[in-house]
Design brief:
Elements lengths: L1 H5 L5 H20 L28 H10 L5 H16 L3 H5 L6 E4 L2 E7 L5 E5 L2 H14 L9 E3 L6 E5 L2 H14 L21 H4 L11
Antiparallel strand pairs: 1-2, 2-3, 4-5
Length: 218
């Protein structure tokens, strides 16, 4: 078995996958009493280590520069500002932010909260930062959004009004790239946590940096 693994063609991940499959097969045969033992248990697969590069994270100053650079004279600018701010302050995946409806931005006492819809049907509720609250309120009023509608919608060709259709993630990333370039950032990927916001008590999952896809429609 060891000799077979050593001579097996293919990359190290492929060899490890094949070895795992053989182990499972022999485990089944042992359970069915077809073979007395599993000869693959003592065989070691090739060592394979993946080293990931480090992508620089956005600092608080970078985030503020980006948000301040987005013009607010059109609904499209207010929407993009609200979208990017929601990602910065909530640390959520872009797909979770795009699933938000107007009803998911609600009052809980004196504070506003966001109800994020995560993978597997899970919901995550979080308090809204006062700066994000101001940005969202301005956008909702300017766009004339109503309860039951998507919070982030596509806009008409002039950028003056929303269409009622939810913004998809490809156009969302295109908008983010456009605004980042307008703010002087050539590479807008890694919508990551902001330095200095750890004291808000957010969970490790919420602080995990997200890397944006390299493809997408403009």
């Amino acid at each position: 078995m060891a000799a077979w693994i050593e001579d097996f063609p293919g990359s190290k991940p492929t060899v490890k996958l094949k070895l795992a499959a053989v182990r499972m097969l022999y485990d089944f045969l042992v359970v069915r009493q077809i073979t007395p033992s599993n000869p693959a248990h003592s065989v070691r697969g090739p060592k394979y280590v993946v080293k990931k590069g480090k992508t620089p994270v956005w600092s608080r100053e970078d985030a503020k520069t980006l948000l301040d650079s987005i013009p607010k004279d059109l609904v499209s600018g207010l929407r993009d500002l609200a979208l990017i701010a929601a990602m910065f302050y909530s640390f959520a995946r872009v797909s979770a932010v795009l699933k938000l409806k107007v009803d998911d931005y609600y009052h809980n006492g004196a504070r506003r909260r966001l109800r994020l819809h995560e993978k597997g049907g899970k919901e995550h509720e979080m308090p809204v930062h006062h700066l994000l609250e101001k940005i969202l309120d301005e956008y909702i009023v300017a766009a004339g959004l109503q309860n039951g509608q998507p919070l982030f919608q596509s806009v008409n060709s002039l950028g003056t009004a929303v269409t009622g259709r939810a913004l998809n993630r490809y156009n969302a990333w295109a908008a983010i790239r456009k605004r980042a370039k307008g703010g002087g950032f050539s590479h807008p990927c890694r919508m990551s946590h902001l330095a200095g916001y750890r004291h808000h008590g957010l969970s490790r999952e919420r602080r995990t940096a997200r890397t944006c896809p390299t493809n997408g429609r403009t």
